[in-house]
Give the backbone structure.
Amino acid sequence: MDRVFKKIKEGMEIFDTLYERHQTTSSSSQRDKLESELKKEIKKLQRFREQVKNWQTASEVKEKDKLLEYRKLEERAMEQYKELTLIHISEPTRLPL
């Protein structure tokens, strides 16, 4: 479990860095690239989340509070990514004149 927790921490650090860069960049091509990288990172986190959910239902696992903490971290990242994609979809496409 500690290995997965470490991977989740690393993934969250990467996600947060990419998210901050996405929020501060003004270049649409850079935003698209960052969104692609964010999508890859969120997919990794989702796999870890599934593992955490499986552990939460297992009766032999005793660290339920720690599992819940990491699951909430992952779900926060998923919510941020969801908001980001909704904003991107709702933005009007600007065509060059």
Q: What stands out?
A: The chain has a mean pLDDT of 87.
